[in-house]
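[job 0412] stage=fold_complex status=start
inputs:
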Amino acid sequence: MKVKLRTLAISMTLIGAIGAPTFAAEELVKPIQPPKSINLGMAELGKKLYFDPRLSKSGFISCNSCHNLSMGGADNLPTSIGHNWQQGPINAPTVLNSSLNVAQFWDGRAPDLKAQAGGPIANPGEMAFTHELAVHVLETIPEYVREFKMVFGKDKIDIDQVTTAIAEFEKTLVTPNSRFDQWLLGKKDALTADELAGWKLFKESGCVACHNGENLGGTSFQKMGIVEPYKAKSPAEGRVAVTGKDADRFSFKVPTLRNVELTYPYFHDGAVWTLKEAVDIMGRLQLGRKFTEKENAQIVAFLKTLTGEQPRFTLPILPPSSDKTPRPQPFGK
Ligand code: HEC
Ligand code: HEC
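[job 0412] stage=fold_complex status=done
writing structure:
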């Protein structure tokens, strides 16, 4: 009883916080819309940059190395491998549907995709380059010079154009038409009885208080380990790094559950490999509820209906370097 009351109190405050007067779960989740008003030329350039390892010091690491679009936009590693085989501190979230999140990164330190995209290029533990050197590499590649000029109408390439183009491409990486979305839009036979039972458990036990919106996540920052603490394998402390408020320690951006079947391992430390275990942990730590084997399996079955149509496009062919292009430095610091 004690746990139940506490759970209810949590749900009520969360629901209050997101401004919905009553618990109308179907209104709290929304189907994904296809991307609107994309500048096609800019997105095409952004796609090349997304796949171009020459934006890294080693000439080997691209955005796609850690956000592999053949693997749900993630790397399926607990934490990423960066320049010089460095082990990253935190799990790489998927880039799929990331345009729908309130902010970027686990702690939300980047307000949007454009602000985010400059980060990894200059991060010594990721692509280990500088913005100046990355722009310089692009300037030595005649086809890039022509394409940037065509898209941005300026004589000089700058990092702002690079991140703007990458962000435009990322806006196209949404995954509409999952079976759950088909069901939301009225196709009543899109889900099986077990999947529907899983959805019912998901909303009635309170998961939807945090995992809501188009992305079933990405709308707020919440503490990890409300009822019971989470023993994380990562030193990251979450939102406190941005706000400086003690109350935000171990608060993380609620991750999207879209395509969650593809984006293992789970949590910010990537410590959990199965959805079964992730659902069990969420139930106990966030809601004080221990699901039975059957309930757990139903929720997992529901989560797998959130896999949408993966972005489909032709792999970009990157323009060759010129004699002036600086050589990559794959080894050493
Ligand atoms: C070495 C691996 C690595 C590379 C290379 C890399 N990323 Fe990431 N990316 C990560 C990790 C790890 C995080 C989470 C970091 C954090 O939250 O502190 C992340 C976070 C993100 C996010 C935020 C998603 C969300 O929901 O918060 C986006 C978007 C993103 N990266 C896009 C890119 C783009 C674009 C590039 C290329 C310019 C890139 N990444 C290169 C590992 C990488
Ligand atoms: C109080 C808010 C809250 C509630 C309630 C909640 N979650 Fe979460 N969920 C989070 C946060 C925050 C994370 C990220 C925690 C971390 O990585 O440290 C998360 C992570 C997850 C993940 C891992 C996703 C990934 O990509 O790493 C899954 C799966 C998940 N939740 C499912 C559920 C289910 C199922 C329920 C209901 C039983 C639920 N959550 C209830 C806030 C919540």
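[job 0412] summary: The longest strand covers residues 221-223.
[job 0412] exit 0
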